[in-house]
């Protein structure tokens, strides 16, 4: 500053004190009333009907076979049938269908909790692993519900709920090794959980205290990306690097149905195919991109896009954690063994609003939501575990208790999460520094210090 | 809308779009979530219901696609009004805007026209996550072939959008989102000012503040605060960033001798830098102080909890006034 700052009054004439402000409640919709109508309660799992597994009369129970996932057959998975909208579970009756009536969507656990087989994708998990998947999903849902509640209480500015997508995220997240690398959107709270990212770290950017906030290399989990589709290219480039290094790690790029319209996603398919990059494109088709249904983005089932680029695409029941795990494992294995990219379309549903700022009653019906409620990912695994007597009341109670503890910890840590000091806005802009930043930082420090009521926060 | 009705900016824009759709069958509105939802800010609320899916179009999630196809529609005689959902999401379309939209008229030796309006809710102060609060106007103003305007009140929002849609050149229409749902102001009365004319919205003798979009309100507050301190501050609402009405600024600075430019965008290579350079050239012998700028820093738009410190609020504008007056 060229002028002596003492020439000025020493208190802020705006009368605005440097008090901690609550983040304004608005982002995606600045003023529109948000719908409270969607219950995001974590209690849904607890409401599980014990008989759920026995009500689905059409499903034939087949003993799990240990057919190893056939790598090369993934290409054949797309059914010859054109029907794009086969609802989950419609074709579950066939235990091991032949080529002709091979289901379009890979499913290993019906909505009623019946194990079924698929010719290309098999899974054989021990009781411990099955219980682990259940625990992951319940805790993730609970964390998500807690974050939604914290937004309502004004602790977060915004929250994008993953409600309904737990199986897609846990199933894929658990298919990875620590040395694999994840490129998420902004909704991958369940994948973050699998990577060991502390849930409270996900909240910073939604509280407005940072624009990312974790070390991506800490858990090989990249920062959330808000600009739709960008990260698919980053994932592909990272995978190209892995291939150049001769390593056998894989990369997984998450994106939504809406994102498939972006040029960046199309370009990432091209690059991945051309360079045979070890990347799995994991598209969570949750049927909606804010208010736009998938039909606004595509006229063919999304998994079929892959064919045109020269790599396999598979649709998996995104509410079936076993199927998602099996298919993602196969896709990751392809990547590791030099067979290149694969597209996995996890067919699922966004049970809640797009974000806490959204009001889905304006564009979709309750009926639709209800039909998907019947396919709940947690309920179906629980039904299976109960039918197989793999869980008892003590186990379920311990998960509830763990959820409560985790939720409490999340609440407490968010309430004590400090606002960043104003000066931090000049930090980390460049790795090697920048003269203009230094100048503006010094000017701002002098300006802030010139107020009589400057407190610690301003420094 | 009845002339003289009091509407907030968001509704004034809605009324203006409605009017344009009624008046000209070639006008189409397109963008992400503009149809059934009525846009994430509800600016296009009810338009699809009344004008149909052919004219109020929910597009795939692809900004380059939105602008690129709007160019094609314009080539076919339509007048597309596209919405980019937030400032930070215009960049996938930047290539189409800069390499194609801006230059096509010139490349065709004037034989074709590109009447495309790109509406962009911009600027901060709404407590949002990143990419939802930016002010990228300078990135477009640097490109010849684009016109750039930004209303600060409901009446201008209404008229300026009418004028932008009628304009045969591409217009980027920046909407100050933090002001969308402020108190209603009279809309649709009187004769609209020319689209690119700046307006003196408060007269003063000691210093001129040039502001636009979201900073106009702050500038008026600063003028009020200064009046209490015995300083007479003139406030300009520039309304247009490309072209800039330098004549109006010059006339004001010739009266006051001092100029402070206020915008939310970073000052480094910002519109304030251009104004400072031109006004220094035009008014050198009238200036009592260098032209000063108050605006964003050379930093990414910060997280919501510090945005108040980043934004040119009342105190920072008053600080700018103090500095200019101290010469
Ligand atoms: C480039 C870009 N354009 C627009 C937006 C605004 N936006 C945020 S989320 C979203 C919909 C995304 O839908 P989808 O890819 O299906 O993911 P989902 O939210 O359903 O998980 C939009 C349009 C954005 N973030 N980035
Ligand atoms: Mg989606």
From TrEMBL, chain A:
InterPro entries per UniProt: Alpha-ketoacid_DH_E1_comp, DH_E1, PdhA/BkdA, THDP-binding
Domain Dehydrogenase E1 component span(s) in chain numbering: 135-414
UniProt keyword Manganese present: no
Pfam family, one: E1_dh
Record's keyword terms, sorted: Oxidoreductase, Pyruvate, Thiamine pyrophosphate
Residues covered by region (Disordered): 1-102
Cofactor annotation: thiamine diphosphate
Biased composition annotated in UniProt, kind: Low complexity: 22-61
Key word Transit peptide present: no
Coiled-coil regions listed: none
Compositionally skewed regions (Basic residues) per UniProt: 10-21, 62-93
Protein name: Pyruvate dehydrogenase (Acetyl-transferring) E1 component subunit alpha
Source species taxonomy: Bacteria, Bacillati, Actinomycetota, Actinomycetes, Kitasatosporales
TrEMBL record, chain B:
Record-annotated membrane-spanning stretches: none
Keywords carried by this UniProt record: Oxidoreductase
Cofactor: thiamine diphosphate
Record InterPro entries: THDP-binding, Transketo_C/PFOR_II, Transketolase-like_Pyr-bd, Transketolase_C
EC number: 1.2.4.4
Location of the Transketolase-like pyrimidine-binding domain: 7-182
Record's protein name: 3-methyl-2-oxobutanoate dehydrogenase (2-methylpropanoyl-transferring)
């Amino acid at each position: 500053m060229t002028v002596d700052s003492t020439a000025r009054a020493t208190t802020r004439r705006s009368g605005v004190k440097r008090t901690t402000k609550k983040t304004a409640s608005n982002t995606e919709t600045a003023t529109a009333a948000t719908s409270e109508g969607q219950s995001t309660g974590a209690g849904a799992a607890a409401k599980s009907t014990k008989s759920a597994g026995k009500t689905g009369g059409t499903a034939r129970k087949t003993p799990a076979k240990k057919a190893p996932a056939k790598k090369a057959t993934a290409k054949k998975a797309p059914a010859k049938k054109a029907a794009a909208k086969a609802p989950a579970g419609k074709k579950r009756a066939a235990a091991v269908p032949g080529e002709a009536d091979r289901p379009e969507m890979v499913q290993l656990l019906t909505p009623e909790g019946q194990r079924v087989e698929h010719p290309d994708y098999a899974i054989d998990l021990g009781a411990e692993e099955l219980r682990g998947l259940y625990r992951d999903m319940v805790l993730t849902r609970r964390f998500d519900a807690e974050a939604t509640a914290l937004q309502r209480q004004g602790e977060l500015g915004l929250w994008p709920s993953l409600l309904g997508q737990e199986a897609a995220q846990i199933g894929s997240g658990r298919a990875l090794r620590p040395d694999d690398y994840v490129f998420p959107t902004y909704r991958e709270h369940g994948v973050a959980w699998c990577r060991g990212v502390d849930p409270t770290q996900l909240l910073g950017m939604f509280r407005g205290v940072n624009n990312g906030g974790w070390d991506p290399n800490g858990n090989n989990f990249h920062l959330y990306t808000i600009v739709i589709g960008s990260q698919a290219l980053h994932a592909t480039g990272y995978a190209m690097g892995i291939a150049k290094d001769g390593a056998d790690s894989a990369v997984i790029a998450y994106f939504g149905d809406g994102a498939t319209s972006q040029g960046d996603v199309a370009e990432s398919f091209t690059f991945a195919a051309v360079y045979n990059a070890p990347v799995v494109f994991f598209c969570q088709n949750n049927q909606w991109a804010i208010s736009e249904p998938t039909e606004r983005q595509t006229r063919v089932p999304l998994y079929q896009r892959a064919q045109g680029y020269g790599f396999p695409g598979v649709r998996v029941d995104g509410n079936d954690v076993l199927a998602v795990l099996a298919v993602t494992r196969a896709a990751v294995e392809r990547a590791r063994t030099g067979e290149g990219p694969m597209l996995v379309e996890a067919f699922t549903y966004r049970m809640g609003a797009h974000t806490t700022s959204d009001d889905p009653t304006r564009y979709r019906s309750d009926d639709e939501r209800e039909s998907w409620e019947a396919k709940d990912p947690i309920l179906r695994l629980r039904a299976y575990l109960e039918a197989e007597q793999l869980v008892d009341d003590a186990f379920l109670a311990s998960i509830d208790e763990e959820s409560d503890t985790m939720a409490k910890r999340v609440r407490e840590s968010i309430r004590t999460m400090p606002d960043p000091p104003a000066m931090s806005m000049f930090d980390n802009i460049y790795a090697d520094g920048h003269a203009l930043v230094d100048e503006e930082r010094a000017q701002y420090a002098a300006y802030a210090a010139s107020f009589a009521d400057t407190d610690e926060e301003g420094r | 809308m009845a002339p003289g009705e009091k509407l907030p900016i968001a509704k004034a824009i809605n009324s203006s779009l409605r009017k344009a759709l009624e008046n000209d069958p070639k006008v189409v509105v397109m963008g992400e979530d503009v149809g059934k939802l009525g846009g994430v800010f509800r600016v296009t609320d009810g338009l699809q219901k009344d004008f149909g899916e052919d004219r109020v179009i929910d597009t795939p999630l692809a900004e380059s696609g939105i602008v690129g196809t709007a160019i094609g529609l314009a080539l076919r005689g339509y007048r597309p009004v596209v919405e980019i959902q937030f400032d930070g999401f215009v960049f996938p379309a930047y290539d189409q805007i800069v390499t194609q939209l801006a230059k096509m008229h010139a490349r065709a030796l004037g034989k074709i026209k590109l009447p495309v309006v790109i509406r962009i809710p911009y600027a901060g102060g709404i407590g949002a996550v990143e990419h939802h609060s930016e002010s990228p106007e300078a990135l477009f103003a640097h490109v010849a072939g684009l016109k750039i305007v930004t209303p600060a009140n409901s009446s201008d929002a209404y008229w300026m959008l009418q004028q932008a849609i009628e304009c045969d050149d591409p217009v980027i229409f920046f909407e100050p989102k933090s002001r969308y749902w402020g108190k209603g102001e009279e809309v649709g009365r009187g004769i609209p000012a020319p689209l690119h004319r700046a307006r003196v919205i408060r007269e003063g003798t000691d210093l001129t503040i040039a502001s636009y979009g979201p900073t106009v309100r702050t500038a008026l507050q600063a003028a009020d605060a200064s009046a209490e301190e015995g300083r007479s501050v003139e406030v300009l609402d520039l309304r247009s960033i490309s072209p800039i009405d330098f004549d109006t600024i010059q006339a004001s600075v010739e009266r006051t001798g001092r100029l402070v430019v206020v915008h939310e965008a970073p000052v480094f290579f910002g519109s304030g830098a251009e104004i400072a350079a031109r006004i220094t050239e035009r008014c050198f012998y009238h200036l009592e102080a260098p032209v000063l700028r108050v605006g964003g820093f050379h930093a990414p738009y910060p997280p919501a909890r510090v945005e108040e410190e980043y934004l040119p609020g009342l105190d920072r504008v008053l600080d700018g006034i103090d500095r200019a007056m101290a010469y």
